[in-house]
Automatic annotation (TrEMBL):
Highest taxon listed in the record's lineage: Bacteria
Protein's recorded name: TetR/AcrR family transcriptional regulator
Keywords from the named record: DNA-binding, Transcription, Transcription regulation
UniProt organism field: Kibdelosporangium aridum
HTH tetR-type domain sequence ranges: 13-72
High-level lineage: Bacteria, Bacillati, Actinomycetota, Actinomycetes, Pseudonocardiales
PANTHER family, alphabetized: HTH-TYPE TRANSCRIPTIONAL REGULATOR BETI, HTH-TYPE TRANSCRIPTIONAL REGULATOR RUTR
SUPFAM superfamilies: Homeodomain-like, Tetracyclin repressor-like, C-terminal domain
Residue range(s) of DNA binding per entry: 35-54
An example Gene Ontology molecular-function term: transcription cis-regulatory region binding
Length: 185
């Protein structure tokens, strides 16, 4: 077994998680121009610790994006057998839209560096689509969502919400709410 295949020690796992958490907060509130050494300082670790886990800033951005999508997957999977599929589906869609808004800058940064965010996400993207499609199917079976909505439609609607919200001068979330309501049966 090589060193890279060994599981991380408990303190190394905590440090990695702390760096991801702090980096996500800092990049969301202050932008992606914040230097990695500032992230390390705020996380209470040395710069070497950050670079041991994330050799480049792009690697850190990728890890944040993957972590956020994995969180959405876990959320969707936890709702897979919810007793009320309609509210479970709509609540998940609202949370996913909020998450995608936060991911937008990360995705754009990766794309500008030549990386395809879907490629970076790999299996997490596939798992998210499967879990989202399962919630959609259950909500449709329960009569809460229009029967003609497909998984591809839902993805396009979410992308549309994000794009629309960035180009209007109104109450944040208002247009997204209107679009999400259009999914109801």
């Amino acid at each position: 077994m090589t060193e890279t295949e060994r599981p991380l020690r408990a303190d190394a796992r905590r440090n990695r998680a702390r760096v991801l958490e702090v980096a996500q907060q800092v990049f969301e509130t202050e932008g992606l121009a914040v230097p990695v050494d500032e992230v390390a300082k705020r996380a209470g670790v040395g710069i070497g610790t950050v670079y041991r886990h994330f050799p480049t800033k792009e690697a850190l951005l990728e890890a944040i994006l993957i972590s956020r999508v994995e969180g959405l997957v876990a959320d969707a999977q936890a709702l897979a057998d919810a007793p009320e599929p309609g509210p479970a589906f709509f609540g998940f869609v609202v949370r996913m839209v909020r998450n995608v808004v936060g991911n937008k800058a990360l995705g754009e940064a990766l794309a500008s560096s030549g990386r395809d965010p879907v490629e970076v996400l790999g299996s997490a993207h596939t798992e998210l689509r499967a879990a989202q499609d399962h919630l959609l199917a259950r909500a449709q079976e329960a009569g809460a969502v229009r029967a003609d909505v497909t998984g591809a439609d839902l993805k396009a609607i979410i992308v549309g919400i994000i794009a629309a919200e960035r180009h209007i001068d109104g109450e944040p979330g208002r247009l997204g709410s209107i679009m999400i309501e259009s999914l109801r049966a």
